[in-house]
Specification:
The chain is α/β, with parallel strands linked by helices. It folds into two domains: 95 residues, Aspartate Aminotransferase, domain 1; 220 residues, Aspartate Aminotransferase, domain 2, CATH 3.40.640.10. Helices cover 42% and strands 16% of the residues. The chain is built from 14 helices and eleven strands. The protein has a seven-stranded mixed beta sheet, with helices on both faces. The longest helix is centred in the last third of the chain and has 17 residues. The chain is globular and about 60 Å long. The two termini are 38 Å apart. The mean pLDDT is 97. The protein binds pyridoxal-5'-phosphate (PLP). The site of pyridoxal-5'-phosphate (PLP) has 12 residues, from helix 3.
């Protein structure tokens, strides 16, 4: 008797991907050394490869994107400095306020525009004059993609030029920068243009089990290296993870386009059911679920092996472990939900 249940479909995040057999083989074969001594050849290869691709002098490996962003903010800003950041930004909202808590850096959160950036006029108003009353405004931090949206290229240019003209540095939280690059059909240098530092995650849609790389000039990366040690992020034979990251860069970048197609297909299917699910730009679908349906729909999906963060604004994320059949199965489950007609 064949009673094999269909595999679980996990749409909570693109962080849930598991390393493929080929990635595990690359990890097992990795040449390693003690990275605190700078001796891990695989880590060094990953850092220099990303630095070269994105057009920076240097790169630095981190175990998480949160730590990479925090070290970047601490390298750019001193105690009593301030950074301008969107209300919806990961560094501001989803990283335990680390810049303030651990870095003594004051965030100046500003409203995000519908396109994901911050209006130039809002930035202009938020920059503090050189006066003893105020924190020193030092840095503009943006995010791409943000909530699945790709920063408009003309906004990227305008905002980074504005910041530099006002003496600010610029940081990009590029946890999903490869999704933005693939969507824009461009290259690493273009999508990173105008930023003094970029944090790239390999553990989201690219499918590595862990790993982020911070990119910047030698002075910034030198400062970040010190903070990484203080934050407990100096790791030893971590080439095992860097090998997974290199494998992801070789094999999982172009295929992000599939995740984007799957997200579009999912949103279109949900709209066909009369639900509000705007056309996604990349791999994140948002769908509004009327409050009375939230709990029963979550249970209905769970019973069909579909794990999702169901709420009034439900987020469904496509990734490496969501093949086309999984998209169809998810849509079928939404269709079979008996509550819509009620
Ligand atoms: C996931 C993510 C990070 C980093 O998260 P970690 O879980 O610490 O790796 C940073 N910024 C954004 C926008 C993210 O989505």
């Amino acid at each position: 008797m064949n009673t094999t249940a269909p595999p679980t479909i996990d749409l909570r995040s693109d962080t849930v991907t598991r390393p493929t057999a080929a990635m595990r083989a690359a990890m097992a074969a990795a040449e390693v050394g003690d990275d605190v001594y700078g001796d891990d050849p695989t880590v060094n290869r990953l850092q220099s490869r990303l630095a070269e691709r994105f057009g920076f002098e240097a790169g630095l490996f981190f175990g998480s994107g949160t730590q990479s962003n925090l070290a970047a903010l601490m390298a750019h800003c001193a105690r009593g400095d301030e950074y301008l950041v969107g209300q919806e930004a990961h560094t501001y909202k989803y990283e335990q306020g680390g810049a303030a808590v651990l870095g003594s850096i004051q965030p100046q959160p500003l409203e995000n525009e519908p396109h994901g950036g911050i209006a130039i006029e809002a930035l202009e108003r938020a920059i503090k004059p050189d006066d003893v009353h105020f924190a020193r405004t030092r840095l503009l931090a943006l995010e791409n993609t943000i909530g699945g949206r790709v920063l408009p290229p003309e906004y990227q240019r305008e905002a980074t030029e504005f910041a530099h003209a006002r003496g600010l540095r610029t940081h990009l939280d590029g946890a999903r920068i490869y999704n933005a690059m693939i969507k824009r059909r461009t290259d690493e240098r273009t999508v990173a243009a105008g930023f003094d530092s970029v944090s790239v995650c390999l553990s989201k849609g690219l499918g590595a089990p862990a790993g982020s790389v911070l990119l910047g000039d030698r002075a910034l990366i030198g400062a970040a290296l010190r903070w990484r040690k203080a934050l407990g992020g100096g790791l030893r034979q971590v080439g095992i993870l860097a090998a997974a990251c290199l494998h992801a860069l070789d094999h999982h970048v172009a295929r992000l386009a599939e995740d984007h197609e799957h997200a579009e297909r999912l949103a279109a299917g949900l709209r066909a059911l009369g639900l509000a699910a705007p056309v996604p730009q990349t791999n994140i679908v948002y769908v509004d679920i009327p409050a009375p349906h939230v709990a029963p729909l979550a249970a209905h999906l769970r019973a069909r092996g579909i794990v999702a963060t169901v709420g009034m604004r439900t987020r469904l994320v496509t990734h490496l472990d969501v093949p086309r059949e999984a998209v169809e199965r998810t849509l079928a489950a939404f269709r079979e939900y008996p509550g819509w007609s009620a």
